[in-house]
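Protein Record: Sequence and Backbone Structure Tokens
======================================================
Tokens: labelled as protein backbone structure tokens, with as many entries as the chain has residues.
Question of interest: how does this chain fold, as expressed in backbone structure tokens?

___
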Amino acid sequence: MLNEEAEKLGLQNTLKALADPIRREILNLLKDGKMSAGEIVDKFPVTGASISRHLSVLKEADLIRDTREGKFIFYELNASVLEEIMLWITDLKGDFGNDQEK
């Protein structure tokens, strides 16, 4: 039961993180490989503090991971969480798609 509650909370955090268009665009940028925080900030017309908050939300949802290299922090996509969401959506869809063909 506790594991199920944790799973629901994780999904809630993930969907909340994906709800924002800037966060979705950050994920799109990271699908091509890791980027530094500065490189990400340069892609948006908002403050560095705003991007930092978006990165924090994505990290809390486990959609991205960060690593420190010297004085820089690099971010990369955590595809396993996205795969879990796709499996959940596929399971939620069930046989609905097959019913359309009948």
Observations:
- Strands lie at 35-36, 64-69, 72-77.
- The chain is about 65% helix and 15% strand.
- The longest strand covers residues 64-69.
